[in-house]
């Protein structure tokens, strides 16, 4: 279908995604809601195929209408609880001004721009601006968006890898990973500086900004127009010694070497949306026994891959995390080794997160999240195996209201858990095996 311009301009192609029974044709102007998308592909008959790229509208509802709109239906009620907003009597958060999240004059500037009227590019309340500050140091941007509709009982099982196409995708119901460059002359699509990216509503995101010798890792979340964020800065990675357990070395610009000091060492490697799990010097399977072992970033020899990486090396309460970006054979990363057995982690003014260790074989380990104030606690979870979910504790909706609540933890798979509400947040890496849980407070 087409929408005609009242001013006599060109018609706009639109796809009808209105609920069943809702009118799509009117004699007077109406206000619709939906998404602006871009089609790029081949169109035509055999022998007359043309590659075309053009914008179109995906119409999902009627917001307000003119005089002949009687009977227009509204959007159906969502089946999931809605995000908790400020309670009765609370002062609504003012529309925020631009907020600088990273300001590195020699490399990159990251700014959260308010977009309350959804006038800039995407229908999101916040837009992220990434600006390369040095023409000789382009910024490798990697962006993971978890699924806001996934639940602990029904987690999203995988991630959609979308390259540098930020226009198509990132609807609720899926988890997405994007990677691109800002200020790079290697391809025309990478040259623009600055560039702009959406921060979708009510979903936890991980953004890395990398170059040869520097990486920023940013945990992000927007709710009620307010941005929760935590920033970590990394440096060139060459090697990491993990007390009495193992040594990790970056070799030849293409691979990690993990060398055990004697006992089994668990390895979890996530690179650009792909996950590999293994053991070094392990005893339970023949393929685990080798020591040392080598891990290529794209899981095949000789092909380095630019983008986000997460490497967990550990055993029980002894863990190390390498979190950052690879660029042209160089790894810049945050390295974290301050692990311990998970008993109780505290986010001051927001929540306590306590490990529940099962005493019965076969019963999974859990974490209990207890809100310690009056605010809801938004809990989001990402496993290195690309599963994700989110929930609330002490929230307004019936499913979110109980306080405390407990959630099953991943078994034998590294994972990141974030508990947050507006300016308060904590991010924790954990790994559970044999009912022993190690944890690293990543950012709090």
Description:
With 444 residues, the protein is mainly beta. The protein has four domains: 2-64, no CATH class; 99-235, no CATH class; 237-336, no CATH class; 340-443, Immunoglobulin-like, CATH 2.60.40. 1% of the residues lie in helices and 50% in strands. It has an eleven-stranded mixed β-sheet. The chain has a six-stranded antiparallel β-sheet with strand order 24-33-32-31-28-29, with no helix packed on it. Strands 1-2-4-3 form a four-stranded mixed β-sheet, with no helix packed on it. A hairpin with a 3-residue loop joins strand 25 (344-347) and strand 26. It is globular and about 75 Å long.
Number of strands: 33
Q: Strand percentage, roughly?
A: over 45%
Distance between the termini: 50 Å
How large, in whole angstroms, is the Cα Rg?
24 Å
Helix content: under 10%
Contiguous uncertain segments of 5+ residues: 65-82, 84-95
User: What is the residue-mean pLDDT, rounded to a whole number?
Assistant: 84
> What is the domain tally?
4
The tally of helices reads 1
Biggest β-sheet description:
11 strands, mixed
Strand arrangement within the widest β-sheet reads: 9-10-8-12-13-14-23-22-21-18-19
- Overall geometry comes to globular
Structural class: mainly beta
């Amino acid at each position: 279908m087409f929408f005609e311009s009242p001013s006599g301009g060109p018609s706009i192609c639109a796809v009808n995604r209105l609920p069943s029974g809702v009118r799509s044709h009117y004699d007077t102007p109406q206000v619709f809601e939906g998404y602006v998308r871009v089609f790029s592909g081949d169109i035509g008959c055999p022998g007359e195929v043309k590659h075309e790229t053009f914008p179109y509208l995906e119409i999902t509802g009627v917001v307000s209408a003119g005089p002949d709109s009687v009977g227009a239906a509204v959007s159906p009620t969502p089946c999931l609880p809605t995000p908790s907003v400020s309670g009765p009597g609370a002062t609504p958060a003012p529309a925020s001004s631009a907020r600088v999240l990273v300001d590195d004059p020699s490399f990159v500037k990251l700014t959260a721009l308010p977009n309350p009227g959804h006038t800039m590019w995407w229908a999101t309340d916040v837009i992220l601006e990434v600006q390369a500050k040095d023409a000789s140091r382009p910024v490798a941007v990697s962006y993971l968006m978890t699924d806001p509709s996934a639940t602990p009982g029904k987690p999203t099982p995988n991630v959609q890898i979308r390259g540098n196409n930020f226009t198509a995708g990132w609807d609720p119901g899926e988890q997405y990973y994007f990677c691109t460059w800002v200020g790079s002359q290697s391809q025309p699509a990478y040259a623009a500086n600055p560039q702009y990216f959406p921060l979708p509503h009510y979903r936890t995101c991980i953004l890395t900004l990398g170059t040869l010798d520097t990486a920023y890792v940013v945990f992000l979340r927007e709710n009620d127009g307010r941005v929760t964020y935590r920033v970590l800065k990394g440096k060139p990675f060459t090697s990491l010694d993990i007390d009495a357990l193992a040594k990790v070395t970056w070799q030849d610009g293409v691979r990690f070497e993990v060398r055990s000091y004697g006992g089994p060492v668990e390895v979890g490697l996530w690179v650009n949306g792909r996950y590999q799990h293994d053991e070094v010097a392990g005893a339970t399977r023949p393929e685990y026994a080798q020591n040392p072992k080598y891990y290529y970033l794209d899981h095949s020899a000789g092909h380095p891959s630019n983008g986000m990486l997460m490497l967990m090396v550990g055993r029980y309460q002894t863990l190390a995390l390498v979190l950052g970006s690879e660029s042209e054979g160089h790894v810049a990363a945050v390295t974290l080794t301050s692990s311990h057995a998970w008993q109780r982690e505290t986010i001051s003014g927001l929540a306590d997160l306590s490990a529940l260790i099962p005493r019965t074989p076969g019963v999974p380990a859990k974490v209990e999240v207890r809100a310690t104030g009056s605010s809801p606690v938004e809990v989001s979870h990402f496993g290195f195996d690309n599963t994700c979910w989110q929930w609330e504790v002490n929230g307004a909706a019936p499913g979110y209201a109980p306080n405390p609540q407990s959630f099953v933890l991943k078994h034998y798979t590294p994972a990141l858990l974030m508990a947050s509400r507006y300016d308060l947040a904590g991010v924790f890496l954990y790994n559970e095996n044999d009912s022993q849980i190690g944890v690293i407070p990543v950012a709090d």
